[in-house]
Amino acid sequence: MRLDTPLAACATLAALLSATPLAAQTVRGVTSTDIKIGQTMPYSGPVSAFGALGKGEVGYFKMVNERGGINGRKVDLISLDDSYAPPKTVEQTRRLVESDEVALIFSSIGTAHNTAIAKYLQAKNIPQLFIGSGASKFADPAQYPQATLGVQGPFRYEARLYARYALSKNPNAKFAVISQNDDFGRDYLLGLKDVLGEKYDAMVAAATYEIQDPTIDSQVVKLKASGADVFVIAATPKFAAQSIRKAFEIGWRPMTFLSNVAVWVSTVMEPAGLEAGQGILSTAYVKDPDDPAWKDDAGVKGWRDFMIKYVPDGDLHDTNYVNSYNSAMALEHVLKACGDDLSTDNILKQAYAIKDLQLPMLLPGILVNTSPTDHVPVEQMQFMRFTGRTWERFGELQTGN
Questions:
Q1: Which domain holds residue 60?
Q2: Rounded distance, CA 131 to CA 107, Å?
Q3: 209 with 181: CB under 8 angstroms?
Q4: Going by C-beta distance under 8 Å and a sequence separation of 6 or more, which residues neighbour residue 401?
Q5: Is 196 helix (H, G, I), strand (E, B) or coil?
Q6: Which residues pair with 147 in a beta bridge?
Q7: Is there a domain that residue 3 lies in?
């Protein structure tokens, strides 16, 4: 074929490109055999216990790849340590985008950390999927159009449930809150305010801590002096354990609610002292492998088999590995739904079109749903109480939306 004019050449090139299968076109992070995704994790630093999430997700995609990958492609998950420091999160995310050229960012941990990278990722047109945070702001499509919350109960919803429960037992309850001084902690205060309304200031005494603080003993003593009969611990594992222990040591026995990001027996309840945690309330949305109720459950058996083969050094009592399993399975679902079109537009389209997805390690009745206007995959939770040895669930599923 002879091309007599530049215009004719352009028209012919456009026609050829439109007829070329997507797999043969250039899509960032995607080849005919692989899809490259990235994340940051706190493998070191003050919340290194959360590094289990990354280890579990790396193990999950190793399993997926051994089974043939997703639509014929292997998943290359690059998981980098950010020490739970937002500046390092930014540095490592830039490396993932500019050097490794990942197609998307998946499950990076931390509210402040995901906030720090969001605008950069938006500018680069890179999805920020199943964020390792339950902060409600990430569910706002106007502010975070390329993000979804993680497969977990949102913090603000959780706090609303705590406030409603406490008020059902005592309409005149006074609340004390210890919270991390960032958007993670502030979401719990917002959830309480949603329920308490104009009475919030009169009913709530609040204290905060910084992630670098060595101890929060003085804050707990101050909160006891407020006369509160409800104690809300909106803290990561180290500080949650300190809060429980200090309240017990000073003889303070309020109705206590513990953030569900810090309910791990091995890393929180045991260091705090099992007796000190007896009667504490929290919420669950996943199956606890230590719960006898799931002894013969097929989903739990499948998770255990996965852990033994693909994360052999993982703690089978650490529910972080359950959360990693759920998150990775949700992303697998999205990538499968993309078919051969792994463009950003289609990845986001499928991430916002999940319909009644049942994950084997979510509690029965909890289904993952998203839409273009709903970026919250999980909205339901169930109350549970610590017995001094394990957590026991009670009541019906509830939603805090």
A1: 24-152+296-370
A2: 4
A3: yes
A4: 157, 376, 379
A5: helix
A6: 128
A7: no
Identify the CATH number of the domain in which residue 366 sits: 3.40.50.2300
| Contacts (Cβ under 8 Å, ≥6 apart) of 84 | 42, 45, 46, 47, 48, 50, 109, 110, 113, 211
The span from the CA of 49 to the CA of 273, in Å, is: 18
pLDDT tens, position by position, 369-378: 999 999 999 9
Pairing assessment for the beta strands 391-399 and 380-386 based on DSSP bridges: antiparallel
* 178 found inside a domain: yes
Q: What is the β-pairing status of strands 281-284 and 104-106?
A: unpaired
Q: Which two tokens stand for residue 200?
A: 């919030």
Question: 185 and 245 share a domain?
Answer: yes
Q: Is the pLDDT of residue 7 over 50?
A: no
DSSP strand pairing (230-234 vs 175-180): parallel
Distance CA 224, CA 219 (A): 9
389, two tokens: 């040895």
Question: Do 259 and 387 share a domain, yes or no?
Answer: yes
Is 257 among the domain residues?
yes
Instruction: Indicate whether 249 and 119 sit together in one domain.
Output: no
163 and 236 in a single domain? The answer is yes
Query: How far is residue 212's CA from residue 112's CA, in Å, rounded to a whole number?
Result: 14
What are 258-276's pLDDT values in tens digits?
Answer: 999 999 888 899 999 999 9
- Is the separation of the CB atoms in 2 and 12 below 8 Å? no
Residue 351 lies in a domain: yes
Average pLDDT over residues 355-373: 96
Residues 192 and 317 grouped into a single domain: no
Q: Are residues 366 and 285 in contact, defined by beta-carbon separation less than 8 angstroms? A: yes
Residues 247 and 305 in one domain: no
Single-letter code of the amino acid located at 257: F
For the entire predicted model, the pTM comes to: 0.86
Specify the length of the chain in residues: 401
List b or e across 116-151, with b for residues whose CB sees 16 or more CB atoms inside 10 angstroms. bbbeebbebebbbbbbbbbbbbbbebeebebbbbbb
Helices (H), 72-139: 86-94, 111-123
pLDDT digits (tens, 9 = 90+) for 164-218: 999 999 999 999 999 999 889 999 999 999 999 999 999 999 999 998 899 999 9
The residue assigned the tokens 């058996």 is 301
Q: Specify whether the backbone of 276 is left (phi greater than 0), alpha (psi in -120 to 50) or beta.
A: alpha
Side chain identity, residue 356: D
**Residue 232 belongs to what H/E stretch?**
strand 230-234
